[in-house]
Amino acid sequence: MTKGGMESVEVFTSEGKGRGLKAQKEFLPGDVIFAEPAYAAVVFDSLTHVICHTCFKRQERLHRCGQCKFAYYCDRTCQRAAWLNHKNECSAIKKHGKAPTENIRLAARIMWKIEREGSGLAEGCLVSIDDLQNHVDSFDEEEKKELHADVESFLEFWPPQSQQFGMQYISHIFGVISCNGFTLSDQRGLQAVGVGIFPNLCQANHDCWPNCTVIFNNGNHEAVRSMFHTQMRIELRALSKISPGDELTVSYVDFLNVSEERRKQLKKQYYFDCSCEHCKKQIKDDLMLAVKEGEGKPSAETVKEVIQFSKDTLEKINKARMEGLYHEVVKLCRDCLKKQEPVLGDTNIYLLRILSIASEVLSYLQMFEEAADYAKRMVDGYLKIYHPNNAQLGMAVMRAGVTHWHAGLIEAGHGLICKAYAILLITHGPSHPITKDLEVMRVQTEMELRMFQQNEFMYYKMREAALKNQKIQVMPEPSNETSPSLFHKKE
């Protein structure tokens, strides 16, 4: 990406926030404000053998580096594209005897790039690596201990023939990774698979109700001619109309938490106090903590008991999911919903969390009708809480649409899939793999809906015959992960 790609934004000093980005021109919802390739990026330790180390796509069969036996690639095209960044790493892994952790590998890739190109402004960057915030001075004792351990491990791995850096500078790089490491997802956007540094993106400040979203695009190396290949990159996309001079903001955390909890999370992970309008005015907190109204309104004590029961149940659910006990998860969800439904409002976040888990696990178990009911209630709640163009809202609506489709509820399923498609066109764009998949589903459900409207009996007969010949798979095995967050924090 050239400098010209950043002409539509500029860095400025944002009052009370430090540096920020502002628009130089008008943007409409769905516009790509800028795209930025990674300064450096690595695959998570647990996924190094199933994720391509160049494009971060999940593939069934990967080619392994013949030298270090550590790095994996989709094909020779990805392997050749990786060589500039992998060359030093490959040699160091062979000499070290094993690959170090993801944090060490990322720091080393950053250092080797600095060795090659210097630490000044890289091509297309608005700010240098040296100028990125590290917040090392704000680390607590446990974080300082982890930092010290990372620096020691780095020095053990770093080759003596490479450029040597001082302890303070190495600590700065690890601080930058801790505060600015961006989560990379697989090609479907459903699983976090790696972490990267994107200096321009790091300049965008947080807002709980942002005007932009960040989407990771794995790029495309499938074309026969390399001139048509596209690079792995992040895209900053507009969620609403943005005027020249407006600050560009993204959300570092999921909005589905009351303002006090979001502020605690932001303070702990990113070392700042959120002063956005939604936090200051506690906007939507009333919806997220809603209780039943009317004659049978529950007492404060009853609400407190149900909330605590919900928290305890969520812990039990997490344990059961980790052990793969999905029927136990369903039982826990049903029992919890019986307690919640007479007390909590339809938009209460504890009710919505249980509905989300129940719909996902029941879909996996192919109990689609019950799953569809829970998914519809979940989406109805989300639509009242989330920004209308929120990416996580779009993914939830898509999941609900697919669940309804598989339950044979074609009218509701098609409607939800169309709604999800409209959201993801803005948040992900028409060329993203998720949006392309959704377009195929939209066309398919539209065709089935026409058939249903013409002859309902014949539609169900044909559907029944199709299901006998093909087992439905709505989604992969449920994981214990939430949707990938914007910035990666080491556990």
Molecular structure report:
The chain is α+β, with helices and mostly antiparallel strands and 491 residues long. Helices cover 47% and strands 11% of the residues. The strands form four sheets. Strands 1-2-12-9 form a four-stranded mixed β-sheet, with no helix packed on it. It has a three-stranded antiparallel β-sheet with strand order 3-11-10, with no helix packed on it. A three-stranded antiparallel β-sheet has the order 4-8-7. α1 (76-96) crosses α2 (102-117), α8 (300-322) packs antiparallel against α9 and α12 packs antiparallel against α13. The protein is globular. It starts with 8 loop residues before the first strand and ends in a 22-residue tail after the last helix.
Q: How many strands appear in the DSSP assignment?
A: 12
The first-to-last residue Cα distance is 32 Å
The structure class reads alpha+beta
Oligomer: single chain
Cα-atom radius of gyration: 24 Å
The description of the largest β-sheet is:
4 strands, mixed
Which strands sit side by side, in order, in the main sheet?
A: 1-2-12-9
| Average residue-wise pLDDT | 89
Quick synopsis:
By secondary structure, this protein is an alpha+beta fold.
Question: How do the strands and helices of this protein lay out in sequence?
Answer:
Blueprint: E1 9-14, E2 18-23, E3 32-36, E4 40-43, E5 63-64, E6 72-73, H1 76-96, H2 102-117, H3 141-157, H4 167-180, E7 182-185, E8 192-197, E9 205-206, E10 212-217, E11 233-238, E12 247-250, H5 259-270, H6 277-280, H7 285-288, H8 300-322, H9 326-340, H10 349-364, H11 368-385, H12 391-406, H13 410-427, H14 433-454, H15 456-469
Parallel strand pairs: 9-12
Antiparallel strand pairs: 1-2, 2-12, 3-11, 4-8, 5-6, 7-8, 10-11
Helix pairs in contact: 1-2, 2-3, 2-4, 3-4, 8-9, 8-10, 9-10, 10-11, 11-12, 12-13, 13-14, 14-15
